[in-house]
Amino acid sequence: MPSEEPKPRRRQARGERRIASLLQAAANVFCTSGYTAASTNAIAREASVSPGTLYQYFPNKEAIAVELSERLLHQMRETHGQAFTPANLALPLDRMLDAVLDPFIAFNVENPAFLALMHGSEPIPGQIAEEHDALHASLLTRVESLLGHYLPDTPAAERHQVAEMTFALFKAGLDLVMTHEGAERDAYVTELKRALFRYLDPLIGDAAHPAESGIHTP
């Protein structure tokens, strides 16, 4: 007896496209209105569908936010892999900053909903907050490991403090990067890298003669 026919691929592809469209609409609304003020009706309008169509895929706003966050967190974890590589650790400090920071900056520029959901002042669903906290801890661990490559004899507690300060400087600079566009955004990216270089160079002592990378230090 033949097995049951699988769902047609065309239907599956159409459903995936609809979900992607709804998630992009939700991302736009969350960026514009914030999570708390956003509504399923607003998301449906942004996606140019009826609320009934939206409810075929998501039961409520929280489910949309959770699905969107899971996808964004997955992409961010992939960005970890692009940034923290052994090859990057072999670079002078200024070029290492380029190699590590550029993927993270590009990710946030391409996905502004990530900051809107993860770093906004509004409460978000607990599941999202827990996953973000785990991601933050993982990132901090990666930064500490990176510092350990350059500062193997520095006590762990001190490396942790340097990692936290480095991460805080990056987040503060990223806020400025995200609020500007074009040439102004590029200028703030350069300033962010310059600030991190000037903080880390005296500690690491790895780049007394920086290579050409767009970071101009006196």
UniProtKB/TrEMBL annotation:
Q: Which residues cross the membrane?
A: none
The record places the DNA-binding region at: 39-58
| UniProt-listed SUPFAM superfamilies | Homeodomain-like (SSF46689)
Q: Does the keyword DNA-binding apply?
A: yes
Task: Name the Pfam families for this protein.
Answer: TetR_C_22, TetR_N
A GO MF annotation of the entry reads:
DNA-binding transcription factor activity
Where does the HTH tetR-type domain start and stop, copy by copy? 16-76
Q: Provide this UniProt record's keywords sorted from A to Z.
A: DNA-binding
Q: Which InterPro entries match?
A: DNA-bd_HTH_TetR-type_CS, Homeodomain-like_sf, HTH-type_TetR-like_transc_reg, HTH_TetR, TetR_C_22
Can the keyword DNA-binding be found in this entry's annotation? yes
Name the PANTHER family on file: HTH-TYPE TRANSCRIPTIONAL REGULATOR PKSA, HTH-TYPE TRANSCRIPTIONAL REGULATOR RUTR
Q: What is this protein called?
A: TetR family transcriptional regulator
